[in-house]
Design goal:
Chain lengths: 94, 166
């Protein structure tokens, strides 16, 4: 049986691992243990914390692209797929 | 379709991208389908054509060792600590986020992404669609979706930094 330390330490994961997990972290898709590990790392590691801030800015700026700015054909393809999927889902799940 | 694409490209994630891209190709070209072959055959032909061109493109770039990290892997030592720690710009960027030229450049960067990354980042970050919906719409796993999203965001972040649009 392995005994986990009560509080995760910043060095339990490397910066490389922290960066690799950031998208999962932002999606809240990590298990509680991994979530605690990354939080402990971010609290101590200024470089990883800055990387996370930059990713958040990137997401925010990407969200500012106006719909009409996107390539209309590509966007239509995607929205078509989405509408069809929503319709099918609504039929199967009343 | 993914298995078929695997014959031409190196990584399973890229093969999944090719298969997904082929579906979009099929939808876009459906009105050109003349019924000379079965729809299934036609779809598989799209997969093969795309896999071949993707495979060629793949060989022109260095293979990515760490599929999760993509372009970021060179920034870490073998032990996993920063070799090239991030230059700080997030705080200054907050004030410039609303600048139209920044949005224009990010728009261009999204357009230049590989198709599967572009689809995922468009649905997630531009349209603001939830992760589960994006997976269902594109027919990909949660894990694959996050790898694509991770790479897309990483690439956009990298360009914003290099070009110092702030």
């Amino acid at each position: 049986m392995t005994i986990r330390p009560a509080k995760p330490d910043a060095h339990d994961i490397t910066c490389r691992q922290a960066v690799a997990l950031m998208t999962d972290y932002l999606d809240d898709a990590l298990g509680p243990d991994d979530h605690a590990l990354i939080e402990a790392h971010l609290a101590e590691c200024e470089s990883c914390a800055e990387h996370l801030r930059q990713i958040r800015i990137t997401v925010a700026v990407t969200g500012r692209i106006r719909e009409e700015d996107l390539n209309p054909a590509a966007r239509e393809d995607l929205m078509d797929l989405y509408r069809r999927w929503r319709r099918d889902r609504d039929i199967t799940e009343p | 379709m993914v298995r078929l694409a695997r014959g031409y490209v190196r990584s399973p994630a890229v093969a999944e991208e090719v298969a997904q891209d082929a579906w979009l190709g099929l939808l876009r070209g459906l009105d050109r389908f003349e019924g000379r072959s079965s729809l299934r055959t036609w779809l598989f032909r799209i997969v093969v054509n795309r896999a071949i061109s993707t495979g060629l493109r793949e060989r022109q770039h260095l293979p990515v060792a760490d599929s999760e990290l993509g372009d970021e892997s060179g920034r870490f030592s073998q032990d996993g600590w920063w070799v090239a720690p991030p230059v700080h710009w997030a705080d200054e960027a907050v004030d410039r986020m609303v600048a139209p030229e920044v949005a224009a450049r990010v728009h261009q960067l999204v357009e230049e992404l590989p198709p599967a990354q572009r689809q995922v980042v468009t649905l997630r970050d531009v349209e603001g669609m939830p992760s589960a919906d994006v997976c269902s719409v594109l027919g990909i796993s949660e894990g694959n979706q996050r790898v694509l999203l991770h790479r897309a965001r990483a690439r956009i972040r990298q360009h914003l930094e290099q070009e110092a649009v702030w």
